[in-house]
Amino acid sequence: MEQYISYLENIRHLSPATVKAYSSDIAEFISFMEESGYSVESPDRNSGRRYVAHLSKKGFDARSINRKISALRKFYDYKIRENKTDFNPFDFVKSQRVDKKLPIYMTTGELERVDDLAKEKEKESSHPMLGARDEALFSFLYASGCRISEALSIRVRDLDFASGQVLITGKGNKQRFVFFGNQTAEILKAYLPLRQQVVTKEGTETEALFIDYKGNALTARGATWILRQYKMNANIDKNVTLHTFRHTFATHILEGGADIRAVQELLGHAGLSTTQIYTHVGIGRLKDIHRAAHPHGRLEQKGAENGV
Asked: Where along the chain do its domains lie?
């Protein structure tokens, strides 16, 4: 397994989080095979099916099982290329049926409540950098559609205020430009001097754009904890996470009329199917267009106006 993990890190250039997930999935399967009296190197045609049945009994949902199937199928494809085994037991396993969940997103009102709280924190806290950082982070996530891992990897010198864009490295080590508008640019400019004061005081000299109170690069765990406090204080009942800002970005620009392929590029999705989960947001707008443009729609609207 170590050789395959090295391949993922050094040849595929997958993110540390993805490599960790692959490693965990493979280790769990190896334990299952050993406990069942089978060899990972010499699986039979039913090894994959038995493991899926085992996962189902343990209560894993379809999405999690499919992720593990995909990881193990790739693992065995690699072993076949390296002549370590003869066939792939997961070629005989069908993916589980997944009920599509609509992405959770925030309303503009909820975004404004979070922003107001960050402004209050900056004014009232003995560490004004923290409120300014929170406002900058949330504003940037919403404006750019970045993943949190991408945002936290940005360095101060990566920001291009003249063009309002940043070149980031996403999944699979793929690079793309993301954009932030004038409003976010002003928030970032207000945050940067406060950030520099902390970095100078603590003597960390970190290049990370987003930092903690000690001047070190902010971690995803730290950012998650921060957002949890805002969620509670803003009385937001939804299951809001840092990824929700990305969902909200996609939802709002599609509602604003953006082409779905452009949204795919902005989000850094490899395939259009991933982006299409956001098309639910346009249903209301599409109904309005239908009513305005289609003959039947216009008749329906006229009837409503006449009280029919």
From this structure: 2-92, 108-283
Task: Quote the tokens at residue 153.
Answer: 């990897």
Which amino acids are annotated catalytic? 147, 171, 243, 246, 269, 278
β-strands 165-169, 175-179 pairing: antiparallel
Domain 108-283 belongs to what topology?
hpI Integrase; Chain A (1.10.443)
Nearest partner of 244 among 102, 100, 101, 105, judged by Cα: 105
pLDDT, tens digit, 9 for 90 and up, residues 190-243: 999 999 999 999 999 899 999 999 999 999 999 999 999 999 999 998 899 999
Q: Does domain 2-92 match CATH 1.20.1560.10?
A: no
d(CA 55, CA 58): 5
What is the tens place of the pLDDT at every residue in 289-307?
556 666 655 455 555 454 4
